[in-house]
Amino acid sequence: MNGALDWHRLQFAFTIVFHYLFPQLTMGLAAIIMGLKALALRPNGEPYARAARFWVRIFGLNFAIGVVTGLPMEFQFGTNWARFSQVTGGVIGQTLALEGLFAFFLESSFLAMLVWGEDKLGPKKHFAASVALFVGSWLSGVFIVTTNAFMQHPVGYVRGADGVFALESVQALLFNPWALGQYAHNQLASLVTASFVVAAVGAFWALRDEHAEQAGLNLRVGTTVGLLAAGLVAFPTGDHQAKLVAEHQPSSLAAMEGRFESGPRATIHLIGQPNVAEHRLDNPIGVPAVLSFLAFGTFGAEVQGLDDFPVDQWPTNVELLYYSFHVMVGLGTLFIGLMGVAALFSWKGWLTRRRSLLWALLLAFPFPYIANTAGWMTAELGRQPWLVYGLLRTSEGASPTVHAGSVTFTLIGFCGLYFVLGLTFVFLVAREVVHGPTTHEVAHA
Question: Residue-wise over 142-156: b if at least 16 C-beta within 10 A, else e?
Fold first, then answer.
């Protein structure tokens, strides 16, 4: 470790990776719950209403732990990254405040109505509450992604002689091209996570020969939504995000592909080991010219290598960035294949009789979490060594008076606390899954 800075980075990385395990499910589930509530309005829609009630309970548990694990990050902006907060607060403070004041309270308020208000609200108003929950959940994503997009591709700001950023254009900040592409990619990835979880629960019930109607419904919804979302994550949103990186962060693209030399007809590497010391990729297996096409739209386009950039502007961990990117892309490709096969069997009515495929769906649910984590690692490692790309280095943003010992002590505390929270969450969700969907019939006024 290199002094307090690395401990600051490690602590924030740990807390944000653990925290994001929860919002990625709530955002995806919010969309699925809204869809289920809409289908429940149809004649004979009670099975969809039962499914929605079950997933609202899971949403509530997930939301509660997400709130608890998210709060420390707000404090870390002051405790660990005080200089960053002081310099950029005039810009990113706007979006973070909007997330808390509007999106979070909208989401939490209507979640309470969904959990406890079905009897009093009736079907249509209860559906409207699910729409509000979806809007709040996805609006929260807007403000968080917009904040991150400013750090990746800063727009809409002015900077004073003292180095402090101020907001110049709200429109430019909110409609940052990077934010639009990143938001679409992120939200669809959250929908992949939720669809895999829904399909896994359906597979679990089917394998146990329990709740046959709900098992089949969850399998149909999970595989259909999963196939659609996984495809859209790859194209067009993933393709668009890659083009943004190529245009605005060319050194990051080079590191993601382990590319050291510049040239046309750039190869996309399926596998290999980046050898930074010798500026080469060992044991590569690749497809020529495809990287040029994905980055710039033509097979003959020139793609820069890391050797074109000063070493102090390279991503600070080329190896981890390379592997994170390839884990994300590799798993995303497998998701399309698995959900494509499962959706086909589901549409044919064969899925509940294919135990091997049901086991695959059950065991696959952790992998979207891994892919989402790898995706965010790709984005954040690619931005290094900058906090605000090209303008503020990471080394300039840490709290200068908080020493390594204090950060290490609190990191150990976070590890212990989050371990307990994680076990509690797993126990509570497992209990709900084993119990299954409620058989309570709601009496509407």
Answer: bbbbbbbbbbbbbbb
Closest-CA residue to 94 (of 150, 135, 133): 150
Q: Which residues of 256-274 are buried (b: 16+ CB within 10 A; e: fewer)?
A: bbbbbeeeebbbbbeebeb
Q: Do the beta carbons of residue 148 and residue 182 sit within 8 Å?
A: yes
* pLDDT, tens only, 320-332: 999 999 999 999 9
The partner residues of 17 in beta bridges, in order of sequence, read none
- Spatial separation of the C-alpha atoms in residues 359 and 352, rounded to whole Å: 11
pTM of the model: 0.95
* Residues with Cβ within 8 Å of residue 359, at least 6 apart in sequence: 203, 207
Cα distance between residue 56 and residue 53, in whole Å:
5
Tell me the residue ranges of DSSP E strands in 223-371: 268-275, 280-287
Closest CA to 378 of 307, 315, 336: 315
The encoded tokens of residue 94 equal 């706007």
Read off the pLDDT of residues 369-390 as tens digits, 9 standing for 90 and up: 999 999 999 999 999 999 999 9
Closest listed residue to residue 54, CA positions, set 311, 407, 435? 435
* Mean pLDDT, residues 293-308: 94
Burial-class residue 160 by CB neighbours within 10 Å (0-12, 13-18, 19+).
exposed
The pair phi, psi for residue 361, each rounded to 5°, is: -65, -40
**For the chain, how many residues are written?**
445
Whether 249 and 389 have beta carbons less than 8 Å apart is answered as yes
Q: What pLDDT digit, counting tens, does each position of 127-137 carry?
A: 999 999 999 99
